[in-house]
Known about the structure:
heterodimer, A: mainly alpha, B: mainly alpha, Cytochrome Bc1 Complex, Chain C, two-stranded antiparallel sheet, 15 helices, 2 strands, 67% helix, binds protoporphyrin IX containing FE
Amino acid sequence: MKELKILAILAAFTAVLYWGVETYAHKVFYPPVAPADFTFADLHPEAQTASEVDRERREVLAMIEQGDPAAGRIAVETNCAACHTISADGIEMMSDEQLIAANGLLPPDLSNISSLYDEVFLMAFLKDPAEASFITSHTMHQREALAEAKAKSPEDSERLINDHVRTVDGFNNRVAGFFNKMPGYAWLGDEELANMLAYFRTIAKPINEITPREITMNACARCHSVDYDNMALKADMDALEDYLGVRPPDLSTMILSHGGGYLTTFINDPQKHLLGTAMPRVGLNEAAQDRVVAYLEEVGDPNIEERNRLGIWFVGYFLLLTVLAYLWKKSEFKEIGK
Amino acid sequence: MAELKKANSVGEWFDQRLQTTTLTKVLMTEYWIPKRINFLWSFGMVLATLFTVLVITGIFLMMYYKPDTQLAFYSVNYTIMHEVAFGWLIRHMHAVAATLIFLFIYIHMFTGLYYGSFKSGRELIWLSGVLLFVTFCAAGFSGYMLPWGQMSYWAAAVITNLFGEIPIIGPELVIWIRGDYVVGDATLTRFFMLHVFLLPVVIMLILGLHFYALRTPHVNTEEGEDCDFEAEARKYQAGDKKNSKVMPFWPKFMAEDIFVMCVVMTLFFFLVFYGYHFALDPVNAIPADPMVTPQFIYPEWYFLWSYEVLRGFFFSSDLGLIAFGIANVVFFLFPWLDRDPKVLPMHKRPYMKYWFWALMITLVGLTIYGKLPATGPNAWVGLVLSVSFLLLVLVLMPLLSSMERKKREREAA
Ligand code: HEM
């Protein structure tokens, strides 16, 4: 009885310590953010409610539905092929090396974009790439909040800003200038853009036929390498640094350092976690983004299955030993009346 | 040498040459342990087991680890975690054992404090124990640096920097410790040497001293009562095992220890497979980058309370450093800070029982606040906790214990 009481006290102290040092500290370090939003609601500033966003989204999708793929193909060939390869349709004006030399980084192959990226996002992206990928209004708003915090408590905001020095540099280089190497095509008009997206629909493979590695290559490899899977950076690192203000990290161990939950909200909207970061919102749809996260998990933490399988045996073995040891102890102690 | 008879068995052959029978008696079957103890007395052997786990897994890790700033991160996170068969298992075991051993060291240490096993004849057990604690801290700190992740690098930079605040010799001392002006390759290589060679060897030597120091005073009991070990041992050997107050180390005491060890190992492997995250800081999965300061820098959890004592005096880094210095040596002084020589468990001490739990709560509070950013109200909580800690150990411990002694003497008179 007394021993149980001692055990309870030990357990209670250990639990409080664990809660404080892990659970609570984690909450303070990484305050929870709103869940990932795959409707990209902020692209519809007029819409007040989720159903209004939904209605606007359906309008855009209906436009693409009615688009003319043949006209779209011509528009794409004229406007996009100088920088992007479309291997599914045999459109390749330059090699990857030449494209990297010309752009500093490899503009992604456009073959499968309508399966990988949210089409409503793509529409907004083609009109104004910087606005769509940085949600500048939203970022600006956070910057204002930061300035306000600075006025209130210089000490705290000093830390906030220090935390983001690198990203603020990136911000100045890129976001503040509303700058994206990808030109905007608002001037083509909605109808022509819808034609293009209708065309992309006709050439895209369904998502199930695209490997998670290919998705990651398409969406991330122009800025990030994945060393542990021999995925090379599809860019010139120095040019990338000039462009982004930072050298983007390798993604091999991101699943361990940031965790799947963080990656899910971060990739969906990087500004939520790193205010003013130069990492763009790439606009992957939910299915594609889940596959990217799963891929990063497979690369960064490949032993999950083996762990779960072996663990039961180890724990079971020692559980059995515990029972045997208990019986032996009982029999030894009986003789001495303890 | 006496004339040698032909040995009838392997055991006898060795006995003739090494006196194994006598040795077994001295170390095991006639090494007497009091019966009035509880499972907390098994934590010493639990610690010895976990230390063995650390040594064995450490040897395997060393086969693939590369102490070079260019290679270290990759050798741990790729070679060991991905390529080597069961490398991940070895690394998880090493990391979880390292974290658990500190939890159990604290439990073991505060058990000694609670039952008064640190004074009145048992000073050397306690002192060698504190020495073990300090050496383990050094081993933990040097080991944490080896994967060369962001937290390895920055915790090392921040903690070694502390030595720079020491008057006069500080700046030189930092360079001497780091082997360079900044934490770099020279630092990593020497910390590797410390972690895999010097500190483990020193730990083994101190362990020998710790165990030897236990022989003469024997271990304490739950009630702190005195016991005539020789008389009780004779009673036991005469066959009155039930009424004797003692039992032999082997097999009786170890029967309990092995049971507790099995429970701990079950928990241990559960954590190794399903709950290892607390032992491998996520930030350390990012390669060290001297150009990018992590948002939050904190040491391993077992250093947090003393780190918070340091930060607690936020208005004066000198005061903080003095307090930190005191926190790191004050346990050595406990046998003399307790002014009552009578050995009693805390629950039988009228004032010290409050003191003990106040100390425990203060340490937990310091640990929790030691991880949080020391800004705003946190800084003040840290100050209150740090001052409380110093008050508790430097003022209240001698004061309350001598009041207790006087009270007892008054009541006896
Ligand atoms: C990994 C390191 C350590 C190992 C392997 C170890 C091992 C042991 C063992 C086997 C015992 C006898 C059984 C028991 O009471 O648990 C013991 C007793 C003791 N140890 Fe340790 N110990 C370690 C660290 C420490 C530390 C850090 C302290 C205190 C600062 C300490 C203080 C004591 C005391 C006071 C006793 C006597 C307990 C009594 O008489 O009731 N030990 N230790």
